[in-house]
From TrEMBL:
Pfam families noted in UniProt: Orn_DAP_Arg_deC
Protein name per its UniProtKB record: Carboxynorspermidine decarboxylase
Positions with a binding annotation for substrate: 237, 273
Entry EC number(s): 4.1.1.96
Length: 373
């Protein structure tokens, strides 16, 4: 079926666009010999894992559930990082993961004996903030719980680990990676020759149009050659950037100084980053408020007054029943869904490379009820 025939609300994963992203990432792997993993935190659309697995080295996870998903559905290299692991989970993680990365020396010491299969690593905090004003996404912010600072890094732990990991970026270009690597070398340089791998985390916006791939490759080569390291990157966003849409229908139009479209999609339930980050998601065929002839506020069916997606303008007057298409909705969307207010979860569809859409998951009342008791 065509995208405009889908029952709404519905996420649509764009296979063609995802393949284009994967081609770019594959080229970075080929040029540099690094390995790139899908960070499932951003995108866990496992129906696409067979395709992603043809291009990338594997998956990375934030805990047991994502690790299981990567193991079951992609079955390639599988890594995990968590601020803390449960004793009950660690044996299974050791069985299904190739790399286990710890967030503290205490966690490493607690579990190093149980982990007999996986290669162990420690997350470091280079204390180099490059993100400006997004403190909630900055693992280098003062007081951060994420990663061991140089002051707290005990060289003794090198006896038990094969690698170091850092993750400090979010939607950033390679110049910020270069800056971060300078801090990593300055603070942890003496240890880099004593490990065999370095994982440079996610947040590399590699598939964005203005991304400096050449500089990324230079950074990778430099670390690889200077310290004789295997290099890993684990982007989430870059894999599925611009590779998905959220299709919604206009259910009503209410008037109170501004005209508000009541949609069957919600910021709070279906695109929580809009409120959390916050940001204004791109919408097909629209402009800024006032830019085109007809301006509306886009909102939803929840009771939350602030469940507002943003103000947008259109060339034509919007009618009840019209479909609207939010762009860049594959990342941090499906993985963050909730059923607050009893809102239905959007279906999940795939748009195949010939433009045909196929619904691969339908959600209903049982999905709402089964998470409550
Ligand atoms: C969030 C996260 C990623 C992926 O980040 P993106 O911004 O989606 O590329 C990778 N590694 C770790 C440890 C993360 O927390």
């Amino acid at each position: 079926m065509k995208i405009n025939q889908l029952q709404t609300p519905c996420y649509v994963i764009d296979e063609k666009k995802m393949r284009e992203n994967l081609e770019i990432l594959k080229k970075v792997q080929e040029d540099t010999g690094c390995k790139i993993l899908l960070a499932q935190k951003a995108f866990s659309g496992f129906a696409l894992y067979p395709m992603i697995g043809k291009y990338l080295a594997g998956t990375t996870a934030s805990g047991l559930f994502e690790a299981r998903l990567g193991y079951e559905e992609m079955g390639k290299e599988n890594h995990v990082f968590s601020p803390a692991y449960r004793t009950e989970d660690i044996e299974e993680l050791d069985r299904i993961c190739d790399h286990i990365i710890f967030n503290s020396t205490a966690q490493l010491k607690k579990f190093k004996e149980v982990c007999t299969g996986a290669s162990l690593g420690l997350r470091i905090n280079p204390e180099c903030s490059t993100q400006g004003d997004h403190a909630i996404y900055d693992p280098c912010a003062p007081g951060s719980r994420l990663g061991v600072t140089r002051e707290n890094f005990d060289g003794e732990c090198l006896k038990w680990i094969d690698g170091l990991h850092f993750h400090t970026l979010c939607e950033q270009n390679a110049d910020d990676l270069e800056k971060t690597l300078q801090a990593v070398e300055e603070k942890f340089g003496e240890f880099l020759s004593e490990v065999s791998w370095l994982n440079m985390g996610g947040g590399h916006h590699i598939t964005r149009e203005d991304y400096n791939v050449k500089l990324l490759e230079k950074c990778i080569q430099h670390m690889k050659e200077t310290y004789d390291l295997d290099i890993y990157l684990e982007p989430g966003e870059a894999v599925a950037l611009n590779a998905g849409y959220l299709v919604t229908e206009v259910m009503d139009i209410v008037e109170n100084e501004i005209r508000t479209l009541i949609l069957d999609a919600s910021a709070a339930c279906h695109m929580p980053d809009v409120l959390e980050m916050p940001y204004r998601p791109p919408l097909k065929d629209s402009g800024e408020a006032g830019e085109k002839a007809y301006t509306y506020r886009l909102s939803s069916c929840t009771c939350l007054a602030g469940d507002v997606i943003g103000d947008y303008s259109f060339d034509r007057e919007i009618q009840i029943g019209d479909k609207l298409y939010f762009m860049d909705m594959a990342i941090y969307s499906m993985v963050k869904n909730n059923t607050f207010n009893g809102m239905p979860l959007p279906d999940i569809a795939v748009m195949h490379e010939d433009g045909e859409c196929e619904v691969i998951r339908h959600f209903g009342y049982e999905d709402f009820k089964s998470r409550l008791s």
